[in-house]
Amino acid sequence: MTSLAIAPGLCAAEEGEFSKTWHAFSSGVSQTWNEPERYDLYVPAITWHARFAYDKEKTDRYNEHPWGGGFGQSRWDEKGNWHGIYLMAFKDSYNKWEPIGGYGWEKTWRPLADEHFHLGLGYTVGATARDNWKYIPVPVILPLASAGYGPVIFQMTYIPGTYNNGNVYFAWMRFQF
């Protein structure tokens, strides 16, 4: 009987937390879309397939130079955290075009006395499409990390996976203007 009395309280707490998280996410996207402070140029820099997770003959064939580019808009909130909406296209592992677009958020720290240097950790939520998946849109939720100085930011993610699939480090330069 006690567990039944506790369960409704837990459900209400979980629902309240989800509602709070959803509100923060949706208002972050909305405000970034409607009130951008800056525009961003994205330049893909490197794709690296984790050698411990691939057969050598596969990594020898893969493209690790993701030529491409992208554009976005972003803002820094009152806590100093970064919010961005972006669209980027680059050459994937098979040297085919892969578009990706979405929303990114990073908690930002300024660990040095120089206020221009910043580090960030966060996430991106969006969609991508690949040639080997017949360009069917696939949702993505990935971690983000960055290091930057003023308007020049080196940003990266890691795509988890299984053996011979995923396990890819992908990084790009982001220039804010």
TrEMBL record:
Similarity annotation: Belongs to the lipid A palmitoyltransferase family.
Catalytic site positions: H49, D92, S93
Subunit-structure text: Homodimer.
Compartments, as annotated in UniProt: Cell outer membrane
Organism: Cedecea colo
Reactions accelerated catalytically: a lipid A + a 1,2-diacyl-sn-glycero-3-phosphocholine = a hepta-acyl lipid A + a 2-acyl-sn-glycero-3-phosphocholine; a lipid IIA + a 1,2-diacyl-sn-glycero-3-phosphocholine = a lipid IIB + a 2-acyl-sn-glycero-3-phosphocholine; a lipid IVA + a 1,2-diacyl-sn-glycero-3-phosphocholine = a lipid IVB + a 2-acyl-sn-glycero-3-phosphocholine
Entry keyword annotation includes DNA-binding: no
Pfam families: PagP
SUPFAM superfamilies reported in the protein's UniProt record: OMPA-like
Residues flagged as site, Role in the phospholipid gating: Y163
Role: Transfers a fatty acid residue from the sn-1 position of a phospholipid to the N-linked hydroxyfatty acid chain on the proximal unit of lipid A or its precursors.
Identification of the protein by name: Lipid A acyltransferase PagP
Gene symbol of the encoding locus: pagP
Enzyme Commission number(s) of this protein: 2.3.1.251
Chain positions of site Role in lipopolysaccharide recognition: K58
